[in-house]
């Protein structure tokens, strides 16, 4: 169904792009973060963003999805919905190789999240 090497290459290209974004964001916050953005393990990068209070950023969310996709690929679970465990549509994975949900579960998630937002305000 999915070619491991092709998926890995797409995820690695995305990781390079996200690490570059991290470098741009952190250069003003912490000049010593450059080695972290270049060579640190992805988990260490995520931990660093937590330490500097950047967990509410889009970059943090994308790094978390990337980390999950890489783990799923290693475990042989890539392309399975994290909610229903059915196959995620190929078109969704082509659009975003870090996608975690099939379209049905994503819609349910968005509906539930909207309700949570209304209850919080």
UniProtKB/TrEMBL annotation:
InterPro entries: Znf_DskA_TraR, Znf_DskA_TraR_CS. The lineage of its organism: Bacteria, Pseudomonadati, Pseudomonadota, Gammaproteobacteria, Alteromonadales. A zinc finger (dksA C4-type) spans 81-105. SUPFAM superfamilies: Glucocorticoid receptor-like (DNA-binding domain) (SSF57716). This is Zinc finger DksA/TraR C4-type domain-containing protein. PROSITE patterns: ZF_DKSA_1, ZF_DKSA_2. Coiled coil: none annotated. The keyword Chaperone does not apply. Keywords: Metal-binding, Zinc, Zinc-finger.
